[in-house]
Amino acid sequence: MTRRPRKTTKPLLRDDGAPIQSRPIRKRNPAQPQLLFDPMPDRIEPALAKLLTKPPVGDDWGWEVKWDGYRLHVHIEQGGVRILTRGGFDWTDRFPVIAKAARALGPATMIIDGEAVILDEHGRSDFGLLQQSLGASGNTPGALASPAVLYAFDLLYLDGHDLRGVEYRSRRHLLEDVLDRQEGAIRISEEFYADPAALLEEARRHGLEGIVGKKGYSLYRSDRFGDWVKLKCVQSEAFMIIGYEPSPNPAIGFRSLLLAAYRGSELAYVGSVGTGFKEREVLQLRKLMDKLPWKRKQPPLPYDGKRKAVWVQPTLIAEIEYRAWTNDNRLRHAAYKGLRDRQDNADVYRMTG
């Protein structure tokens, strides 16, 4: 049945030429329900994945590739875009391609959680290539802009709604809707529902760092609560550089770097790394260490080794890949991956026991 058009008793346009006025706005009745609106957080501490040696029990887990790059939160606001590191530093200028892609997602307001990476010729994230693109030298001044892309894996805020109290599965669906299969500088980190042991073996076969699992019904909680877990094909952690073993050939720079981790609040020696360097990296690192405030013959921590060393102020943080630990807490088969920028707020490894 068709509805008859209503006759307008007060037409919008009148013939008398009198000015058109809107109805006076009445004060809001406080008894009426209010629309909920959450202001966008200025910064959110990221949720972190807990390292496990075997997959968790249960089937409510989604699995992704563990990307090897820089953790970022991309804030898309009415006033523009901000790209914040895990430590809260604004690196918008250092990731211009990601920033441009984020602006194209507007006018919606949102906070996207993800990892900035550069892929090698085999499609694997390469931390060394990312560091080279940023001109990473342990100091932000003079840093370069990177053509990195962002693999997004969570959505923390969307158009006036703080999503941290929403379960992960729903946040993931919203993120997929927002990105809508984009393949540009911001793309979805693909999720798999499969046997994690089989996925880890597949990751190992393709030379990936590992996999990350997220509990479907979990809320977004900052820090390391076990709602997110990681399984690694190889171990990779951040260690403090406390010195270097000089090379007989001064033109080479050094023979190896001496490393430390935290035991409680104090640094403890964990061995050295002498492989994984490119020639240019060795010379660059030597220059950086020579610029540190002090060098001395005495170590900055208890040391019973026999190496002839030049000790430096514990300032520079290196990402080190290794296979295992010895019984006396030394790294086995260590290889240098890159220098962490201090503003990245990388966790220096903490020893237990």
UniProtKB/TrEMBL annotation:
GO molecular function per UniProt: ATP binding; DNA ligase (ATP) activity
Enzyme Commission code: 6.5.1.1
Keywords: Ligase
Keyword Transmembrane belongs to the record: no
Record bears the keyword Transcription regulation: no
CDD domains according to UniProt: Adenylation_DNA_ligase_LigD_LigC (cd07906), OBF_DNA_ligase_LigD (cd07971)
InterPro entries assigned to the protein according to its UniProt record, in alphabetical order: ATP-dep_DNA_ligase, DNA_ligase_ATP-dep_C, DNA_ligase_ATP-dep_cent, LigD_ligase_dom, NA-bd_OB-fold
Catalytic activity: ATP + (deoxyribonucleotide)n-3'-hydroxyl + 5'-phospho-(deoxyribonucleotide)m = (deoxyribonucleotide)n+m + AMP + diphosphate
Occurrences of domain ATP-dependent DNA ligase family profile (ranges): 150-232
One of the Pfam families matching this protein, by short name: DNA_ligase_A_C
GO biological-process terms attached to the record: DNA recombination; DNA repair
Chain positions covered by the region annotation Disordered: 1-39
Top-level division of the source organism's lineage: Bacteria
Major enzyme class: ligase
Family: Belongs to the ATP-dependent DNA ligase family.
Record protein name field: DNA ligase (ATP)
